[in-house]
Amino acid sequence: MLNDVTFGQYYPAKSFVHNMDPRMKLLLVIAYIVAIFIANNFFGLLLVTFVLLFFILLARVPFGRVLRSIKMILFLIVFTAVLNLLFYTGGENDIVLAKWWIITISWQSIINTVFLAMRLLLLVLGTALLTLTTTPVALTDGIESLLKPLKYIKVPVHELALVMSIALRFIPTLMEETNRIVAAQKARGANFETGGIFRRAKAMIPVLIPLLVSAFRRAEDLGDAMDARCYSGAKGRTKYKKLTFTWRDLLGFLFFAALITGIVFLNIYLLGRFDIIWQVQEWFGA
Amino acid sequence: MRIAAKGLTYVYNPKSSFATQALKGVDLTIEEGEFFGIIGHTGSGKSTFVQHLNALIRLTGGELKVGEYDLADKKCKVLELRSKVGMVFQYPEYQLFAETVKKDVAFGLKNFRKGISAEETEAAVREALSVAGLLYDEVAERSPFELSGGQRRRVAIAGVIVTKPEVLILDEPAAGLDPLGKKELMELLHAIHGQWCKTIVIVSHDMDEIAENCTRAAVFSEGKVAFCGTPKELFSRGEELAAMGLDVPVTARCAQILRENGIELDTDFTCGDFIGKVLALYRGDGAPAPCAGGEQEPAAARAEREEGAPALREGGEDAQ
Ligand SMILES: Nc1ncnc2c1ncn2[C@@H]1O[C@H](COP(=O)(O)OP(=O)(O)O)[C@@H](O)[C@H]1O
Ligand SMILES: [Mg+2]
């Protein structure tokens, strides 16, 4: 029942993007998100879309794999889009197309909905590309390294990163364990598939308790194993894989700097001079 | 219930890059009343196969009939089938969850027989625990988590046999047990076999266990049944087993050493039979022993015969 959940969707390949430093990729994803949110017109978003497509090609990840990441949050996108479409009302020069009770559909709301859906899609696809091209381990390494300055205000960055990588490491293990326990209880006649939500929740108890017990057991074993190998936190600990910035990261950085500049330019240039809403309204003769 | 599989195939995670073909056409028939062994290298598909037998894995390719249940039929009554085909997984003690042993053992019973009375439940639990070698009054009200590992495994087995399944499948039941625990487990299974559960299927790595206990055994290799037959037939093909990365029982290794010394033993590879045949040889009842120094040995053996069987060991050491 849990077989379809593939966690950590890393797509192994050799590419420019795969070889980039995880720290730079994290920073660039942040820049990418910022770019999506400061873009206040369709041309800005279009620019972001081109950049995304370019990077997907560069990463040599099949489009299908990237698109699959939408599946999980498709519901969320549709939900927010519908809400936005039905309940958003624009300013005075907005043209109402349909009105019923508290529901209004107007040009503004249609435009807004498309804009919002596009933003969300770009957001998800971009972050998916990060996880597709970066292993979870590299990702935690990157995060740890980026958060290092926080050490000076006594945030246990190394320990937090360790907790995160252990959690990542154990998700597949616990998933497998869950499958096994589910099978064992099914063999004893447990029924997880039918019944109301309350019954189903109750049916999960024979799975959750053994799972919890085993998670604690594993945690203890792991702790013992680390103790036995004299693990003592971040102090004096060196890295097996040192992160280094390369020319790829410089290129990526320059590219994104250009993107942000472009978007800011479009924002300023198009502001008040050209609005796609007018254009669309003109096209449809509204 | 007779189990008949024909051309059984199964692929994990089909249509993805992680697709693994675990079964590549398994043909196997297990008759009612057998104590059947399944052996094979890790990853040869043993667990995948046995999970098909009570529809924990739904049939996707080939045919499988368990008694009158046709697993290829989408409308096959799965719950009913599962009550008749009990399955003990590897490390079954990790599936215990209830606050008392009694409740845990009763879990399956209550699932399969909705509305069963409290008295009936208690009687069944009592019986199952006692068959599993535990005293009801001692453990019933305790938490399964305070018991020892061996006791927990017994509780887990009791939780499966409590419904008196016709077929009992055990996936590596002896894993992680000490030698005494293994011996007791096998005794338990023999006690169950027959009245409680007509057919027993056991997945095992331990060739001695298979040789000692099973009526027949199948060797799985790369998702197929490479060989199926009695332990006697099976272990006389030691080289083929070795090619599949499998061992033979101690008795078969001893028989091999004897064969290299020109002695052919007709044994079924159980310890009792093997020792019996060797003893017969040693005492000179059978074929003459052409070993070095063989002239003195029969005499020594004859002298020791009066002292009974325990002398065998000393005699054996002398011979070395
Ligand atoms: N839940 C699963 N998901 C994916 N592959 C699996 C799963 N379970 C088993 N496999 C694969 O199927 C093959 C057969 O496994 P299994 O039936 O467990 O073998 P055995 O019990 O003989 O060790 C192995 O290659 C294994 O990696
Ligand atoms: Mg197995």
Write up this protein.
The complex is a heterodimer of chains A (286) and B (320). Chain A has 286 residues and is mainly α. Chain A has two domains: 168 residues, no CATH class; 64 residues, no CATH class. Chain A is 65% helix and 3% strand. A two-stranded antiparallel ribbon of chain A has the order 1-2. In chain A, α1 runs antiparallel to α5. Chain A is flat, with a radius of gyration of 24 Å. The N terminus of chain A is likely disordered. Chain B is an alpha/beta fold and 320 residues long. Chain B folds into two domains: 227 residues, Rossmann fold; 57 residues, no CATH class. A six-stranded mixed beta sheet of chain B has the order 6-7-8-3-9-10, with helices on both faces. In chain B, α7 links the parallel β7 and β8. The longest helix of chain B has 14 residues. The C terminus of chain B is likely disordered. At the A-B interface, α7 and α9 of A face α2 and α3 of B. The complex binds adenosine-5'-diphosphate and magnesium ion. Adenosine-5'-diphosphate (ADP) binds next to β2 and α1 of chain B.
